[in-house]
Amino acid sequence: MPDIHGPDAPTPVTIDRREGPYGEVALRERGDDFEIIANGCFLMDTSDGRSERLLIDAALAALPADRPAPSVLIGGLGVGFSLVRAAAEPRWGRIVVVEREQAIVDWHRQGPLARISGAALADPRTAVLTTDLVTHLRTATDRYDALCLDIDNGPDWTVTEDNTSLYSPAGLADCRERLTPGGVLAVWSAQPSPDFEQALRGAGFEGVRTEEIPVARGVPDVVHLALRPKQ
What we know:
Blueprint: E1 13-20, E2 23-30, E3 33-38, E4 41-45, H1 50-62, E5 72-75, H2 81-87, E6 95-98, H3 102-109, H4 114-122, E7 126-129, H5 133-139, E8 144-149, H6 169-178, E9 179-189, H7 194-202, E10 206-213, E11 221-227
Parallel strand pairs: 5-6, 5-8, 6-7, 8-9
Antiparallel strand pairs: 1-2, 2-3, 3-4, 9-11, 10-11
């Protein structure tokens, strides 16, 4: 897989830049790919997507095969790969995406990212909530069979300071409360985190494990997986 951020990479061109309640968010085009930048920090791009797809696949695989039409909450719309993967799987029932940046939602609905996610957004199972994920998990009453969270660079490298609370004992308790018994929490990270695995166990999750995806830059992307106990 070529490194689009290497010395021979095309020069990025900013397509849109907006100031929102959480700072600046920008969409850049680099050759054939798009990048999302938050407050000057790289979040994600469209060059690969394997780990975003693993986030969805691993969560579904962790659920009992006989659970009918499981519901999934996707935390973070990003470049759309996780949503597209979920919508391509007929086994999923309700698909709820929580994205706090209106600009990102707009780029998918009316902008250049629509070519990636247009069909998935039009799927009747899909709903998009433009709100803060941490607040939603704390205040919502709905429960889901799977939470697939990809809102920054992981528990050890948060782009937005407010997101740190998601990985705290209180935040993980909110995640557990939003899951049905036996439901699965899947968290994307730019690097493995043994401390986060321990935090998941301390928050009452079971079956904690980490799946790795090799990437061009060296350190693997990972998906942390944990189950809410059935009892």
